[in-house]
Amino acid sequence: MLFRSLALIAALAISSVAADNDDGIVTMKLNKIPEEDFMMDLLSYHVPPTIMSANSLPSVATERKLVRGAKMQNHGEESVLLKNRMNAQYMGEIKIGTPPQSFQVVFDTGSADLWVPHEKCHSFSPMNCAAKNVFKPSSSTTNKDIPLGSKSQFSIHYGSGPVQGVFTIDQVTLGQDDVVSDQTFGLVQHTSGLGILYQKAKFDGILGLAFPALTQNPGTPTVVENLLSENVIKKHVISFYVGKDKDGEVAIGGMNEKLMKKETLNCIDIMEPARYWLTPMSAQVEFGGKVVSSGNNAGIIDSGTSLIYGPKAVVMKMALQLGGIFIPQANLFEISCDKEVPDLQFTFGDVPYVVPGKDLIMKDLTGTRCFLAVSMMMFGEAEEEENMVDVETLDEELEFGAAEDFETLLGVSKLPIPTGTTAWLVGDRFMMQQYNVFDVEKKQMCFAELKEGM
User: Fold this and answer.
1) Which of 25, 36, 143, 242 has the fewest CB atoms within 10 Å, counting from its CB?
2) What is the DSSP track for 186-225?
3) Gap between the Cα atoms of 273 and 355, Å rounded
4) Which one, of 337, 352, 344, 284, lies nearest residue 315 by Cα?
5) Going by C-beta distance under 8 Å and a sequence separation of 6 or more, which residues neighbour residue 257?
6) Among all residues, which ones are annotated catalytic?
7) Does the pLDDT of residue 171 top 50, yes or no?
8) How far apart are the first and last CA of the chain?
């Protein structure tokens, strides 16, 4: 899922690779980048996501390609792939070519394509690509040109401008030694359209793990489809364990039952069209035991978002309850570090999932300023601004860096939501509470309790 919800966050980076299972699952360990880095970047570059009603869409068939990136007239191409991955919570190493060239990529459950920077990116886009790991086709003995007649140009349009490159073919290594041969992927040569966001991001590219229908190159197998066809994995299932104070793990091809209580597995059909992980809730949202969001609620489970986002009016009410002061530059509410934050509860498949109040507090580098890890989600361009007359606002320049005007830079990120549905975007603050399973084949989002000690 691609939401421009916050920038340059404390990502999880792979430091070592677990031994791959013999049952068709590729597993990789994830380590958490220090909280200080997360807060510094978050307070400097955080922009909330925008949600819009599906009624405003000109075509359901193109819904993912046209809405989640920019104010753009040409709706024919993917509009988001990167900018919301500035939220990236999970990133890790993959290797491409022979001998292998290493890249830090985001494991994205909201897209299906793989792309990394081309060596020409350093010269074509020196301002924001100079520090990136780039792929050198001539250095790989297994690199192949795209067959004549196949799509050869790779292009993504952002509100700030285009990102362009070419397609190529080579082998991709995941985990310890699981190789996908003859994988078609994108090599980005021009990244100037991404501006400072890509320069500051801690990753090189994207590894999409979601629905094949989301690929920009229809008819060409995605990485996961090739993993399946080559019998490296048996199922199109992606699972995440987000460790709070220990290593986490992403499993491609199934679930790691050593981490979860299988008997508690709770699977919910996601809402159609099944192109993103919009999961209906079966009860009202509660904060401190009190209902804060009634009606038809749904949660977008996103492996690339760190915070929790809710409707503006609801989040404002929650923040006022805590005496919160809105910091416009950070799009966050500052609260007293002595404040006891209540638990936040979502219910999926009649099972309550609680985010403890202690996980809803974030501290700055000094440890003296605290912020609520629940932020406001915007709703559509035509929506009038919520009345924030009762919300105290502190208009200051944060010491962590001046906030950039990302609305101008990248445009408004939008995702269509069915009429009558109140959407929440839930990232790692929620995902760390349980084992999370993205089942592409069954179009289900599943949760399970973690085993003791996890």
Assistant:
1) 36
2) EEEEE-GGGHHHHHH-S-SEEEE-S-GGG-SSTTS--HHH
3) 28
4) 344
5) none
6) 108, 302
7) yes
8) 26
CA distance linking residue 154 with residue 165, whole number of Å = 5
pLDDT of 412 higher than 60: no
- Pairwise pLDDT comparison (440 vs 274), residue with the higher score: 440
Q: Does residue 10 contact residue 27 with C-beta atoms inside 8 Å?
A: no
Tens of pLDDT, residue by residue over 298-311, are 998 987 677 899 99
Give the Cα separation of 72 and 178 in Å (integer): 39
The more confidently predicted of residues 125 and 20 is: 125
Residue 234 near residue 119, CB atoms below 8 Å: no
DSSP-based three-state secondary structure for 287: strand
CA distance 290 to 411: 36
pTM for this model (two decimals): 0.77
Rounded to whole angstroms, the Cα distance separating 227 from 320 reads 49
User: What is the distance, to the nearest Å, from the Cα of residue 331 to the centroid of all Cα atoms in its chain?
Assistant: 18
The DSSP letter of residue 135 is B
Outline where DSSP puts E strands in 294-349: 296-301, 308-311, 325-327, 332-335, 344-348
Question: 103 Cβ partners below 8 Å, 6+ apart?
Answer: 93, 94, 95, 96, 116, 133, 135, 204, 205
9-13, 198-202, 243-247, 268-272: range with lowest mean pLDDT: 9-13
Banded pLDDT at 227 (limits 50, 70, 90): very high
- Is 70 exceeded by the pLDDT of residue 450? yes
Residue 89 scores a pLDDT above 50: no
Q: What secondary structure letter does DSSP report for 1?
A: -
CA distance 417 to 315: 19
Instruction: Name which of 77-86, 176-185, 385-394 the model is least confident about.
Output: 77-86
Residue 212's closest CA among 196, 194, 192, 227?
Answer: 227
Which DSSP string corresponds to 432-450? Answer: TTSEEEEETTTTEEEEEPB
Cβ burial of 381 (10 Å; 0-12, 13-18, 19+) is exposed
Other residues' Cβ atoms within 10 Å of the Cβ of residue 151? 14
One-letter amino acid at 45 equals: Y
